[in-house]
Amino acid sequence: MKKVFAVLASMGIAASLIPTAVMAEEASYTVGICQLVQHEALDAATQGFKDALTEELGDAVTFDEQNAQGDSNTCSTIINSFVSADVDLILANATAALQAAAAGTSEIPLLGTAVTEYGVALDIADFDGTVGGNISGTSDLAPLDGQAEMIQELFPDAETIGLLYCSAEANSQYQVDTVRGYLEEMGYTCQDYSFSDSNDLASIVTTAASSCDVIYVPTDNTAASNTEIINNVCLPAGVPIVAGEEGICEGCGVATLSIDYYELGYATGEMAVRILRDGEDISEMPIEYAPTFTKKYNADICQELGVEVPDDYVAIGAEEEAAEGETETATEETAETETEAAE
């Protein structure tokens, strides 16, 4: 943290003589951001995080933003560079980034985001909601029972549900295990289809599509980065996909019960402000969760597969289009008012 203390000491001036407000104004912070991979959900979380910090701290905060391009080893390299640079706080975006950061430092405050289950990610037995130490953050866990109910609501006559996920992602395994329990209670037969990385994804998806009535894809970073591969197999085969989050659904799914990743990242940024500016103790900060969840559907894929959704589902992109329309209307009204005033 680059503060005035060192300068004051060299000048022989006691810090106690400087007003607190002045010291706060002159404080500056460097925040390292390690994002596992580039895709819509994680990008939105990072942007929300940065916006929250910038709105509160302005030019006093500087970001060192790096992307590991899906490689967990690169996450470790990035974290080590942050530790060497002695950044003031680290954002670990996605589970692999969080695991690398937890292994890389026990001193620098570390916030995770887009991490589904911290107890699973950090191998904490009897996790009670607070990690402790130098770690806290936000979770992107959506109600898994609600996602199972969505499958039942949309596909009550289906018999076999394929559970498609990356075996290298511990949080994906957790979601699949949990959803399987709900689906089997509903009478469905579930079959796991795990892939180790994107190289074997197409062959695994092809096998799943030939054997299942519906496929469930949890919040999974590898799947999110390769929705085109999944869609190119499942759409021609006529097999619908229910997804764990909106980005996957937009790329290859019919429906999802999802959070807003921008809002999740923004909430993480607010936590960072409380740590950096307000001095809140991160060891006592519990993991925070998204406050709202929305049933959304992919209108194009639903139409092509003949899937009808209830009225309480929102088309992906509809909220953004409505907001843009309101902005355009307001701009036009302002212009008309200015024209009338000039006349």
Automatic annotation (TrEMBL):
Signal sequence coordinates: 1-24
Segments for region (Disordered): 317-343
Pfam families cross-referenced by the UniProt entry: ABC_sub_bind
CDD domains named among the record's database cross-references: PBP1_ABC_unchar_transporter
This protein's UniProt keywords: Signal
Residue stretches of biased makeup (Acidic residues): 318-343
SUPFAM superfamilies per record: Periplasmic binding protein-like I
Protein name per Swiss-Prot or TrEMBL: ABC transporter substrate-binding protein
Native source species: Candidatus Limivivens intestinipullorum
